[in-house]
DNA sequence: TTTTTGTCATAGGTTTAAATTATTAATCTG
DNA sequence: CAGATTAATAATTTAAACCTATGACAAAAA
C-alpha cells in the first residue's frame, strides 16, 4: 500500500487550479501522462474520485472540493518549513539556549544580552539559571546550547573557552572597616558565611580559606550572594563574593569591602558547549563577544 | 534542487522521537543507512543541521526543536486527508449539491430531504433553487451534482431520469366555482396569468393553451406560484398551477381549483446529472428514493 | 453522417531516486 | 588498549517516476 506524497498534492493542486490535465502538467514541468498517472494513484490511495473527467472539461468532484483547501494548507506548511530554515540562518544562531550559574548571572547577563541583541537583533535568547551540575546535565542532553560557568569543568565531551578571571573580595560588617585585611590564614578564625551546597562558589571560597574544614559550621548557608551580604550587614559574620558582584550587592548594605593581598583568590569564568554542537564556530564568536577584554 | 518530501518528514519525526538513527530506522522499517541518507538530504535542502550526532546519543538542534512540531502538524494534516476520504465514503454520497426549479422546490423538497436524511443520516445536502437554464449551466460546470427539473432537457452530456408526471389544474376566482371547467380552446378567451419569462412552467402552461400567443399580454407576470394564486384570488384573472402546488398555495386564497377534462395538461419532472459524474450509480439510487410511486 | 480536434488514459522503455548489504570511522566503556 | 556502539560512506540492486508514442472517447465541425 503506497502512501500520499507531496508530489501527489502538488499535482492535485495544479489540476484543481487549471481544471485541465495538459495545462497542469505543463505548469508542473512534466508530461501529461506522468501527471495523469500520479492523480490516478492519489485517487486510488484515497479510494475516491477527485476529478470528474469530461471529454472537454475537467472539474472537481464534491470530495475534491473539500480536499483542495486542506491540500493547499499542507503544501503551504511545507513551504513555511523552508522559510523557517532560511530565516533561522540569518544572524548568528536564531535561537540561543544559554545556561548561567547564579553567582554570575545577575551581574553578567544584562551585559551579555545587550551585546547579543545589538549585534544580532532577531536572536531569541533563552536563559537558564541553575547550579553547574544541572547545567552540565542539560548541556549533555542538548537542552541548552551553551553554559557560562566557572572553569574547569573537565568534561571530555565539552569545549571550554575562558572568558575572564575574577577576584574574590572580603565583605565585613561596616564596623570592621578600619581593621586590617586578614590574609587567608587569619580568615579561618572568623565566622565565614557561605552559599548552600552545590554552588561552585562555595567550594571556591572554602578552598581559599585553607580550611580543610566543614568544621562545625551550623546551618547558616545562604541561597544567594545577596542574602549573604545582608547577613554580613547584620553582623552575623563575614563572607567572600566575586568582585563583579560588589557594585550590585553592597549598594544598600552596611558592609565594608576589601581586597586581599596577593595571592588574591580568583576563579576563571568560561563558556562551555558540546564539541558536537554544529553551532561550535558560532559559539566561539559569541564567546569573543561576551569577553570584556 | 530537490524538494522536501513527506518521507523526509516522516523519517525526521522518527529520529526526533527515538533520538537514535538505528531505532528510528527500525521503526520506519528501513535500514539505518537509508535513513541517514534521507536525513542528511533534508538537512541539505534546509541548509541547516537538524540533529546533533554525538558518539553515543543523538539530539535535536535548536532549529530541529522548532522544526519538529511543524513537521508533525504537516504529517497529521496528511493523515487527516485520508481520514476525510474514508469518512466521505460512508453513506451514499457524503455531500449532495442539488438544484431544483422554483415551481417544484417548495412542494417536493421537504419530502426529498426527509427521505435522504432518513436513509443517510450523515449526508450534507446543499440546495440551489433557480431557473432551469441556470441549473443547466451550474450542472455543466460541476457546481452542482444533480438537478430536478421538467423534462426533457435534451442535453447530450446529461443523464435524464423521470421521477413522476404531474397534472396542471385551473385556478379561478371563488366566484367562478359553479361555472363549467373550460377546455383549452375556451381558455384562450380568459385572462391567463403567468410566471415571469424564464420559468419553464410558463412555457408549459402557454403551450397547453393553444395560444400561439404572447398576444398583447400586459406586464402581469408573477415571480412565484404563490403570487399567481393570490392574484387570481383578487379577481385579476385565472391561472394554471401544478397539481402538487394546490395543497400549499390555495389554502388561504379565495379561489376555486378544477381539473381539466382529457386531454389534461401535464409535465414530466425528472432528475438530471452529468453522465461523467462518478456518482452516477448513486444518483440513480437517489432518484429511486425520491420517486413517489 | 463522417471527419477532425481536444483531452485524458494506457503501454513500453529509460532515467532517476531510494533502498539494501557491506564496510569504514569515530568515540565511548571496561 | 580491545571491544562495543553508532552513524556515515560506498557499491549495488530495486523500485518509482518520467517520457514518448499510441489509443480511446466524446464533442465540434464539415
TrEMBL record, chains A, B:
Entries under Gene3D superfamilies matching the protein: Periplasmic binding protein-like II, Winged helix-like DNA-binding domain superfamily/Winged helix DNA-binding domain
Domain HTH lysR-type: 4-61
Protein name: HTH lysR-type domain-containing protein
Pfam families reported in the protein's UniProt record: HTH_1, LysR_substrate
GO MF, one annotated term: DNA binding
Keywords linked to the UniProt accession: Activator, DNA-binding, Transcription, Transcription regulation
PANTHER family attached to this UniProt entry: HYDROGEN PEROXIDE-INDUCIBLE GENES ACTIVATOR, TRANSCRIPTIONAL DUAL REGULATOR HCAR-RELATED
Lineage, uppermost ranks: unclassified sequences, metagenomes, ecological metagenomes
InterPro entries: LysR_HTH_N (IPR000847), LysR_subst-bd (IPR005119), WH-like_DNA-bd_sf (IPR036388), WH_DNA-bd_sf (IPR036390)
PROSITE patterns according to UniProt: HTH_LYSR (PS50931)
